[in-house]
Hints:
This protein is α/β, with parallel strands linked by helices. The chain contains 27 helices and 23 strands. The strands form 6 sheets. A 7-stranded parallel β-sheet has the order 5-6-4-7-8-3-9, sandwiched between helices.
Amino acid sequence: MEEKKKFIAHKRETKEGFFEIQTVKEHLEGTAKYAKAFAEKFGAGAFGKCCGDYHDLGKYSEEFQKRIQEDGPKVDHATAGAKEIHSFPIQMAIAGHHSGLMDRGTKANGPNEKTLCGRLKRTIPDYSGYQSEIRIEQPQEKPSFRNTPGHLAYSGAFFTRMLYSSLVDADFLDTEDFMSGGGVVRQGFDEWETLYRRLEDKTQHFLKSKPSGIINEKRNDILQQCLDLGKSQGRGAYTLTVPTGGGKTIASLAFAMEQLKANGMDRIIYVIPYTSIIDQTVEAFEEILGSKNVLAHHSNVAYDDEAEIAGGDIARKKLATENWDAPVIVTTNVQFFESLHGHRSSSCRKLHNIANSIIIFDEAQMLPHRFLLPCLQSIGELVRNYRCTAVLCTATQPFLGPYFPEDIPLQEICRDTEALYEIFRRVRYERLGMVTQEVLTERINNEKQVLCIVNTRQQAYDVFRALKGRGNFHLSTWMMPKHRKRVLKKIRKRLKAGLPCRVVSTSLVEAGVDLDFPTVYRAMAGLDSIIQAGGRCNREGKRPLSESIVWIFDLEGKPKKLKDYLAATSAVLPKHEEVDSPECIAHYFETLYHLKDSGLDAKSIIEKMEALAFETVSKDFELIDEESYSVFIPINKKAKVLLAQFRGAGPSRGLLRKMNAYMVSLPKYQYDLLDDYRRIENLDGAVSVLINLEDYTKEAGIKIPKNDLGEVLYFA
């Protein structure tokens, strides 16, 4: 009897030198099992299974079988399944499971155009061999998302994206299972009950200890409200408006943990605006929950360095960054929202694991204004159809009500927030008006400990350079992250010892940097930035209000990109007695959003989503709109070792992430100046390196050549 032909999906070489195969049918069944489980979380298990069942039908072609057995040319094996299934979301997921989501296109598109309509017209190798093993069954169910008036087209596009995520993660995992011989390290995290008890021990310690003073009493009250509401309320959208110093980080985690336990949810995702403030949040969570249960995922983290993470945690965390299969994720606005609007499998793979999660948006006022509407729309969709709870958490709650999806009510967690602001008020805001740099410098020189925050790197350096005496420090992104951390450590040490400490910085110190000065100067900016600066003054509340002043001043040379923020602040400040009152903050954001108006969806992302233009959305949705270039500073032995590895082996994602600690990011025109004057060496387009370390100073970071003579000056 003739042996039945085996159609091969994958093959791997064993330690003994033999080849083992995974048949196409085995791979389809394994992928379908994973994809069904993933999609069941949002009521689409049958859709997930269908994606898995037919995603690799093209591997039944003779051409593909020749490729895998003889290492022949690449063969399109993704289009076949899309041709067989009539459901659009499944067609899109299958067709794009390697190349990425594409625009739907129109019937007029030809076979060579990069749209789904064009793709389905392609002539592909005969894959009819599948008929000996598989019977095609069209999906009978319809997507279970809520048919909300006005949101149906958007919901359909979002569903397609989540289905795609379920398929690509399933495909990756089943392939890894086979190729590793079952050796892929997954899970290994502590049980949620264990994590709950650890946090409960921490919160009960706060609540049972007798608070000293009204501030600590109110912190405990905020914490208790978060615990109570987390237990009693179902999934939904919430705001947590807590003044600076109110303990919102632990309180929001407590709310999330109670929500998770009460509603049977899967994970907690903490979204932060900047990579620079992630570390201390991660450290706080790791201290309570254990480091292996907290995953930091942003551009500067690398989990392939065995010196950093012991044992199996390396592989476990490395995989978890790819699909977010971990208990607690701490990530950035950029990572979270660009993934939600991305089209590549690498960025979308994690999305299905957002379903049934609690998502906390720290510093919610920092949601990107140019994309505010699509960001809020995506948050609303996650709450509406993907069993998520969203918490918009901030000390300066933006005026979001009119812009949030109308069918998703926003509920405030804390009672009587206005009274809280009165109790937590630890600083006075005073206006200086327009000042010269000389006057500003003189005032700073007369202070023993003071923080001055300005709007540009050039201003920061110019003011710093004019200071006299010892104990003066400069902070800006002209300095590499490693350098800034070292300077911040010195600053904290001097502040604690009561030594002279005058710091001139850009806005990088405003959010999440734990500094406490008796006096702060803040250049005129958006009101939320001014209040954030106030959070660096009398942070511990140990000084009288009369001695804790934030001076707001105007300085020549206002950046154009701050135009709307400055206009909104200037419009509302004269109308409110207290700069940091909830009324003033709400008035500011209402004014700002009115000024920006159509600019709240600057690239018409929602319209393009509804048109199913997935690749176009991905390219247009870039939170960091200014083109920037990285320069590596080989400042010490460790940096030089990394550079040698780069020169030897070329770029890799893990290596580049380690190198980020020694990178300075520059706008194109500054980078071009360094290049023109041959101050940098470009390494194969991925990164450039500073040639002469004399062009990097310990006071201010990288030097930029400005004039025609190549004279070195600093400028923004």
